[in-house]
Amino acid sequence: MRMTRSVLVLGLVALLGTATAVRAEDVKIGIVDLDQALNATEEGKSAREELERKQREARSKVQPMVERFESLQQEIQGKKFVLSEEVLYQKQLDLIELRNEIESQMKELEGKLKVDQERIVGPLRKKLIDIVQKIGREGGYTVIIERGTPGLLYSREALDLTDSVIAQFDKTG
Predict the structure, then answer these.
(1) Helix, coil or strand: residue 83
(2) Which pLDDT value is given to residue 7?
(3) Closest-CA residue to 80 (of 68, 62, 66, 92)
(4) Contact 142, 15 (CB under 8 A)
């Protein structure tokens, strides 16, 4: 998908370069940093706070298991010379089992966090894109490119529409 996007942007830039040579006054380009816009809006800030809260909750669910793992690991290190082979072997198996539980729990929580992020941030990002498209239509832009898009190495600050997008978002919010 990134490769397709890169090829599309490069093709668009080449097309715009050709169009610029023919009629430079008809080409109008804008740049938008959607991540910056999202983080600057009030809804975006509250979404980020909610996601951070969910991350803290996820960490707090795993933390007791991690502490138990570290405690068991220290116990094995401290007593490995005084424990019988059978007891040492059993404790090592317990350690491996606990590590697997932690990894499983982490994967599950990461999946939930990704779903939460899409549920929380997705609609805001869609709203931002709609605003960018509206600005593009009303402003007569030929193209508006997202900052950070592969192939975009430089842009003048004068082309940046991010502040306009943030203002429109906050107005409609």
Answers:
(1) coil
(2) 46
(3) 92
(4) no
pTM over 0.70: no
Rounded Cα distance between 25 and 12, Å, is 17
- 160 neighbors 33 (Cβ within 8 angstroms): yes
Going by the DSSP 8-state scheme, the letter that residue 160 receives in this structure is B
3 state DSSP class of 30: strand
Q: Are 143 and 30 within 8 A, CB to CB? A: yes
Return the structure tokens found at 25: 């006054």
Could you give the CA distance from residue 155 to residue 163 in angstroms, rounded to a whole number? 15
Alpha-carbon span 34 to 46, nearest angstrom:
16
Reported as a single tens digit per residue, the pLDDT across 85-96 is 898 899 899 999
Q: What is the tens place of the pLDDT at every residue in 46-65?
A: 999 999 999 999 999 999 99
